[in-house]
Design goal:
This protein has one helix and five strands. It is mostly beta strands. The chain has one domain.
Length: about 80
């Protein structure tokens, strides 16, 4: 899955601190997921991709996200 929740104070467990991010599964480009009115953006809550990105779900439910530079044709 390419969505990572934001964390803070978990460095002792080997988990980097930072804001929630979405990562391109091809090039590793990161998009910071900024809160909207104190909550998660609607696209994230609805299981969609952010504007300009492509989301593909595998049959097992795995989420794959691709940035605008790495658009993937849907089958």
């Amino acid at each position: 899955m390419s969505y990572r929740a934001g964390t803070a104070g978990l460095e002792q467990l080997g988990i980097d601190s930072g804001p929630p991010t979405l990562t391109c599964d091809r090039c590793g480009r990161r998009l910071e997921v900024r809160p909207v009115r104190g909550g998660a953006p609607a696209w994230l809550l609805d299981g969609r991709a952010p504007m300009g990105w492509t989301l593909i779900r595998a049959p097992d439910g795995t989420r794959y996200d691709f940035c605008p530079a790495h658009q993937v044709r849907r089958r």
